[in-house]
Amino acid sequence: MINLAIQDVSFDDEATRAMGIAFDQTCGSLRRLSCADKVRELIAKRIIEAAKNGERDPVRLRSQALMGFNIDDVSMPDVSVGRTPPSPAYAAVAHAA
């Protein structure tokens, strides 16, 4: 359970609904990474900050939350971290001079 101290801020029903949708979608996008409490806390803080600045669109809130994770396309399949990406076949061919 994440318990963030938010002072001097209140959100209406529309904002809290958008924030909840963005939080759930962001955690779903990050898959296993979002299991860590610290990651979920960071996601929540980013969404709250964006909402404090007036953002109410769940897609844009989610985008703000994902910034910094260096994820451009969260629809990619899971890949193993630390693996060397495969080289294209033409990279192994020596060029004749």
Question: What do you see in this structure?
Answer:
This protein is mainly alpha-helical and 97 residues long. The chain is built from three helices and no strands. Helix 1 packs antiparallel against helix 2 and helix 2 crosses helix 3. The chain is globular, with a radius of gyration of 19 Å. It starts with 12 loop residues before the first helix and ends in a 31-residue tail after the last helix. About 8% of the residues have low confidence.
Largest sheet: none
Low-confidence blocks of residues? 73-80
* Total helical segments: 3
- Strand coverage percent: under 5%
Give the overall form: globular
> What distance lies between the first and last C-alpha atoms, to the nearest angstrom?
63 Å
Secondary structure category:
mainly alpha
Helix content: 40-55%
Query: How many beta-strand elements?
Result: 0
What is the alpha-carbon Rg in Å? 19 Å
Let me know the average pLDDT: 77
Topology:
Blueprint: H1 13-30, H2 37-52, H3 58-66
Helix pairs in contact: 1-2, 1-3, 2-3
Compact overview of the structure:
This protein is mainly alpha-helical and 97 residues long.
Name the features.
mainly alpha, globular, 0% strand, 97 residues
